[in-house]
């Protein structure tokens, strides 16, 4: 069926209407192929006309010229209990020049479930009038799956909400950035958000949505709080909900469970990115030994086409809790118990070996050479080799986080910071800008350190530093592997910080490709300094800086031997011994440059 050409009268409308259908089942979808090509071809839309409703519901729109190609449209109709028909309207404002066509119209899964002679089993429900046998998980989920409404009879209204009359017993969180909005019909922005609700399948029904347009900003969060529930004990509490995540810049929807009121709780489920223009059902099984609450959190993406919808939220096998959840204190005492030192005669300027009580010079602490028998002089220092596989940061620390007071999870979850990661924990699509495998094991299970650019804003920087290194030798260098992939990657710098003075030793910016790259930075002889990795965030979250396998090579300082230098060695002016092969090689091997003297 096609429209080729017409006259140029104003506001032409060509309509193609379906037969009238009596009803549709809950999984009903309509698909067809369409062609809309030409300089002034105009728009097209598919409308749902339901008996008894004056207002049509827009199900689908094609905006103007879509190229010389056939495209497929898949439209979710869902449960429609009343007679309805579809109208495909072609609109031309003024002059029409182009071709519009439709072909291969298909209805799928639109029948109600068939009657059954019997319906046995603990997980089955036998519909009262239609005699269909359905899954018991479909009972009291705000959808008439039976076709006679019997699966929605005798349900506790306190355990379900379709948002037709408000938020029911759900509440907006006051600690988030903005609120979910109750609406009906399409959201204000084109090409994102639902066109209709899930309960009625029409523009008359209501649902909640998260508005991603201004003033909302990237990473802003809207949180919805459930009522409180008793622990399910030996039974299972089941949470069902329908979500809609349509738009090129849709970011994240997540569900948390908490048993303490002033915490974020723990993650039960999440979904990232565009999931298509459809409502999707999700079922979560919840266990808890304490009273609990569910949090549904939407997070704004990098633009205005990121609206997220929620509808038909229900609980099965759960009971409401009458009390309040406990709270925990977010203050810390600030006191620490000093380590017990052995008996010693050391001065304040000396370091006490923990096992023996031996005194060594403070400059021998954190110099990559263990001078104490128990190596305690190197214990609170950066590790010589770090691959992050033991899930520690090997002595590296973040000064900005150390300065923050209060509860860590409360204050730093959305801050641009360094953290441990691995490919196995990535969400779909994140591997485009974050390493899928580490460098050490070359697997998704291996760990690395990365600066997560889904937090923070353009230009933010984050440092991770070593504790103070007392002294290094003349050949000291730091070797590491870095991963900088993504369309909006920022930069990575290696800095040397001595007191209040910071100098740049190495820098790299921009996309370096989807692989680990080796880097080597010469340190040489330095004293009382820190090495700092500084990541700078790009314009969006599409670019995480990562490092792995950080190694300090040949960094222990020179040792004055308790003997004269041999005939194969050169005696430095400071009494150090070095191989004669190292003379006049443009490297300060002696630490006082006497091996490079012109008088040799």
From TrEMBL:
Cellular compartments per GO CC: membrane
Keywords: Disulfide bond, Repeat
S-S pairs: 140-155, 366-381, 565-577, 572-590
Keyword Transmembrane helix applies: no
Domain MAM residues, every copy: 1-112, 159-320, 384-557
Stored PROSITE patterns: LDLRA_1, LDLRA_2, MAM_2
CDD domains registered for this protein in UniProt: LDLa (cd00112), MAM (cd06263)
SMART domains (UniProt xref): LDLa, MAM
Record bears the keyword rRNA-binding: no
Top-level taxon in the UniProt lineage: Eukaryota
Signal peptide start-end: none
Pfam family, one: MAM
Record-linked PANTHER family: APICAL ENDOSOMAL GLYCOPROTEIN PRECURSOR (PTHR23282), MAM AND LDL-RECEPTOR CLASS A DOMAIN-CONTAINING PROTEIN 1 (PTHR23282:SF140)
Protein name: MAM and LDL-receptor class A domain-containing protein 1
Lineage of the species this protein comes from: Eukaryota, Metazoa, Chordata, Craniata, Vertebrata
